[in-house]
């Protein structure tokens, strides 16, 4: 938040300077001091990456995050997020509370921050959990563009991840079922092209008959409600298998 030309910590920031709460703030992003730029340039040989991706780790858990904003160091210190150690100044990142919780970071504990580089995904397939997602998407004039904008707000995903996208205030859960280029590996998403699969096809699809139990299923359903067999075209595209 900016008031009177100055910077104020986002609403929900604790006095400790490391807990940042913004309801439904997805994807994970952090706020860091400008001095990081100088320090990173030294570490990386004077050249900064075009896209800055950070890895937060704590014990056996880790998550990739982006940078929401660089702010003046004095603002971080005023929020209680600065400190020092024998080697010199210690920078602090303001991290969303839910990210710290997912990492298992307890009060008073620290997470390791490192700069990482991930392969960029060129294509991703998403499978919505419910038919409501396709209905919400279909109300937009350009569903594909809207979905691309939503997914590109995420820093990185892996096959098997479940992400949440918000459309008109309603949150929808979607599974990441495939990534092109590096299947099963974690990939960066900016600039990714989407194959929305069942999400878009269900906008103008017709009821379909299950090839196993012959039950007639509604257009938006990706798998049979009786036996969980996937819709024929989805099974052909994704290599078969059951689904919900």
Please sum up the structure shown.
This protein has helices at residues 35-43, 73-78, 97-103, 132-138, 143-151, 198-201, 232-238; strands spanning 2-3, 6-7, 19-20, 29-33, 53-58, 61-71, 83-85, 88-90, 95-96, 112-116, 123-128, 156-157, 162-167, 170-179, 187-188, 193-195, 208-209, 216-217. The chain is α+β, with helices and mostly antiparallel strands and 244 residues long. The strands form 7 sheets. It has a 4-stranded mixed sheet.
Helix content: 10-25%
- The number of distinct helices, counting runs of at least 4 residues, comes to 7
Strand order, largest beta sheet: 4-6-5-10
Rg from Cα: 21 Å
The N- to C-terminal Cα distance equals 41 Å
For the report, how would you describe the main beta sheet?
A: 4 strands, mixed
What can you tell me about this protein's structure?
Residues 204-233 form the RanBP2-type domain. This is RanBP2-type domain-containing protein. GO terms for molecular function: zinc ion binding. It comes from Emiliania huxleyi. The protein is an alpha+beta fold. The protein has 2 domains: 2-116, Beta Barrel (Barwin-like endoglucanases); 123-238, Vcp-like ATPase, Chain A, domain 2, CATH 3.10.330. Helices cover 20% and strands 30% of the residues. It has 7 helices and 18 strands. The strands form 7 sheets. The protein has a 4-stranded mixed sheet.
Q: Any chance you could write out the topology, listing elements then pairs?
A:
Elements: E1 2-3, E2 6-7, E3 19-20, E4 29-33, H1 35-43, E5 53-58, E6 61-71, H2 73-78, E7 83-85, E8 88-90, E9 95-96, H3 97-103, E10 112-116, E11 123-128, H4 132-138, H5 143-151, E12 156-157, E13 162-167, E14 170-179, E15 187-188, E16 193-195, H6 198-201, E17 208-209, E18 216-217, H7 232-238
Parallel strand pairs: 3-9, 4-6, 11-16
Antiparallel strand pairs: 1-2, 5-6, 5-10, 7-8, 11-14, 12-15, 13-14, 17-18
Protein name: RanBP2-type domain-containing protein
Keywords: Metal-binding, Zinc, Zinc-finger
Domain RanBP2-type: 204-233
């Amino acid at each position: 938040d900016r008031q009177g030309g100055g910077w104020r910590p986002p609403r929900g920031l604790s006095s400790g300077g490391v807990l940042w709460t913004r309801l439904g703030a997805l994807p994970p992003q952090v706020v860091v001091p400008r001095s990081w730029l100088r320090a990173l340039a030294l570490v990386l040989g004077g050249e900064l990456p075009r896209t800055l991706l950070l890895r937060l780790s704590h014990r056996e858990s880790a998550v990739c995050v982006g940078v929401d904003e660089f702010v003046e160091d004095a603002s971080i210190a005023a929020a209680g997020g600065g400190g020092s150690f024998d080697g010199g100044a210690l920078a602090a990142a303001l991290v969303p509370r839910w990210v710290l919780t997912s990492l298992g970071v307890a009060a008073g504990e620290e997470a390791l921050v490192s700069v990482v580089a991930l392969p960029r995904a060129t294509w991703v397939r998403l499978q919505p959990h419910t038919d409501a997602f396709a209905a919400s998407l279909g109300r937009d004039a350009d569903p594909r563009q809207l979905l691309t904008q939503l997914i590109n707000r995420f820093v990185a995903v892996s096959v098997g991840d479940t992400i949440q996208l918000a459309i008109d205030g309603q949150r929808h859960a979607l599974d990441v079922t495939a990534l092109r280029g590096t299947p099963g590996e974690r990939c960066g998403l900016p600039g990714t092209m989407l194959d929305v699969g069942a999400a878009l096809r269900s906008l103008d699809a017709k009821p379909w008959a299950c090839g196993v139990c012959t039950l007639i299923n509604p257009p938006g359903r990706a798998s049979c409600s009786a036996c969980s067999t996937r819709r024929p075209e989805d099974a052909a595209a994704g290599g078969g298998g059951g689904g919900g």
